[in-house]
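Dear colleague,

Following up on yesterday's call, I've attached the two folding results inline so they're easy to grep. Please treat them as preliminary; we haven't cross-checked anything against experimental data yet. The first protein's sequence and structure tokens come first.
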Amino acid sequence: MSNSWFEQVSADQFVTQGDIICDCPVMGWKSDVSFDSASFEELQAGRDAFKCDVIVMTQACDLENRKVESVILCPCTLLSEFRSDWEFTEKTRKQNPSDKAFHKLCERIASGAMWNLTLLNHSGSGNDHRVVDFQEVYTIPRRFLEQFIVARGNPRIRLLPPYREHLSQSFARFFMRVGLPVGITDLP
């Protein structure tokens, strides 16, 4: 690949942190379920299976050493798709989605000012940049994901070090935000 952020790997290579899996089946929650009774049956009815592009967030060493049964994934959207969604949201808020405003948003994401998002460079050969959203986190059985990738047979792109570690650090920053209203008092 023409970009040092990524490499292309074949379907038979092991899954690792930073792998982008396109059209990956995941489980989420339906947005139109009211959850009035908070019953087990209501929770089961609220499940939703769908496909989206994701990036593997589980640590590479845990995957390589088979220390985990489930793999953590986050949505990894093409920047052009992210922009379309952003423009729609801006219009519904009666805002003007200008090129300048979108550029400023991208700068904020790239600088780490937007804790829930991070921006990945384009992967070369005409591909778009990608936006990773840490607010949506999915898990999938590791064995299912491995079999899915091999059965499909498509090569995928893999984020390389140190960009993979930067992604992991951004994910950690999103989760480690802490604001205590009152500090610890009355220590012995």
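Below is the second protein, in the same order (sequence, then structure):
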Amino acid sequence: MKKTETETLYARGHPNISAKHRTTIEITTMGDLTTRGDCIIAIGSNKGAKQLGESFKKLAKKENSTITMIIKVDNQTETIRGQGNPRLTFSHPHDLVVRKSSYYSDRTIMINADKAAMDLDRKLVEKLRRPEKEVEIILRAEAP
């Protein structure tokens, strides 16, 4: 039977969100965004990687763990699936980064993801460009 841990965070949109990055998705606690941040899909998050719960991090670090991210804006959702890894540290205070590759850093919360920012539904990205929109992000870690 698989163990599951879930984290929910809240962020908001920004007019400079382009979601054009080919290999990553990022959510940040920072309150502003320049046009260079083409992987960032939400700002002002109430949690960075470091603030995720210990039980979530412990499960996500297990060998063969899977991680799912669900992004919700209004009635629209997008699901990204990837892997956890024992090398993930979850130690960055501001950023949460999902990667299509197996590269990891203190900001990485998922590797080998099935989507990057450029793969997100463009209707969702339009909503993410609106600063008044609340973005709900659900993270689920599962491991045998």
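For the second protein, one point worth flagging: The radius of gyration is 14 Å.

Best wishes,
A.L.
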